[in-house]
Input
Amino acid sequence: MWPKNDTLVWASSAFTYLAFTVTLALGLAWFLQRQRKSWLLAKIPGPKSHVLFGSHRIGSAVEDRIQWLIKISNLGEVVKFWIGFLPTCIICSASGAEVILTSQKHINKGKNYNFLRDWLGDGLLTATGSKWHSRRKLLTPAFHFKILEDFLDVFNGQSTTMILQLRGKADGKPFDIFPFITRCALDVICETAMGRTVNAQCNADSVYVKALNRFAELLIKRSTTPWLRPDWLYTLFGQRRDYDACLRILHSFSQETIVERRALLQNSKRNGKEEDTEVFGKKKRLAFLDLLLEYSEGGAKLSDNDIREEVDTFMFEGHDTTTAAMNWVLYLLGHHPEIQARVHEELDSIFGDEDRPATMDDLRSMKLLENCIKESLRLFPSVHRFSRMLREDVRICDYVIPAGTNIMLFPYRIHRDPKQFPDPERFDPDRFLPENSKHRHPYAYIPFSAGPRNCIGQKFAQMEEKVLLSSILRKFRVESTVPQESLRKMDHLVLRPKGGNILRLFPRS
Output
């Protein structure tokens, strides 16, 4: 028998040796894996990067960042850069996008989406795996075309309010139309998603809008500044207090709405009748939130927190994106009066002298306006970049991109491939005529993403954009005042013009 002390010393030594060996093995495995990753990534073109801060320019001003991304995307079909220690590969071609977007494996969102989780939780935008699959299946019925048709009255009613406000600006003097469309889109999304009227158009100082815009600014800054990404560093050096204050406003708005709507539905059940919502004199069932509330009964499928996640997601995805898209259409039409005249002619042929709201048949007849929207989204996609995190190696354009790499799909560049879109910088809605697009690569145009994780609300967005834009163009002629060569673009979660969208507005006689 060994002495007790010797046994303890032996056990301690063995444990220390084992721990050292395991640590060394893990460290060696990590080093070899990183060396392999670095070796594979070294073959991909990209800008120089700092050993600690990566491609440091990515933390610069928002208007410089998008220009930087555009510049480096010219280096090839696949381009790499680093945010701190995180490698990112930009996909700049339709064939490269197809590899990622058609895959059932590469559906995990990129790490930048983690910063949205504070606000959106695991909603449809950020969820992965089985949770995403079940949520997508659950929510798809809320976007059935029959339900979307019921929202037409909301689109028309809110656009009427916007037109009344724009009449006071139709004097030929330059003004920023961006906030007018922003507030209209916010009123639309609040009413269609939740049945709540925030009256943002008549209340320019909406607390919710201010919190939304400020949160977006803070989110962009944090996600592109390597030393602000860790939580503890963001608390120490960032603007955590401001960030948390914005989150409280955004979450409170959603939670209050859910409580109010649940009370209405429960009251209707006690009275033995289905709850309807009065919208512009016509009774409507509010499909999106009602559907979530129905599934939440007893917490079997959706908890209150699950509902808040999806409500916040719909508010996020359905607000800024449509706002930006409509502003870019007006900006481009304001620079192309000959195409704007064709749109006026189309709208006049549909409505004549009638001052009436648009119908579904009217929207189907707006072929040229629809193509103007598509062409604007080609040149200035609202979601100009989105990302996925690779869980396994993938081959794209003769490069092997290793697992653990962030993939950034860059529609802004993909949409400018001269092989797919000749003279790509020219605004030409006729590109989307059937005869001109039938031979185009199916992934050359992806403003709503594509494949399994395409945008669930794209038909909603297209309807809203047609109604609001046709309402403006039926009443006014627009002229853009910012020359295209002087245009500065901002990466502000969505792609938007720096300084707003400065137009001149003239009544149509």
About this structure: The radius of gyration is 26 Å.
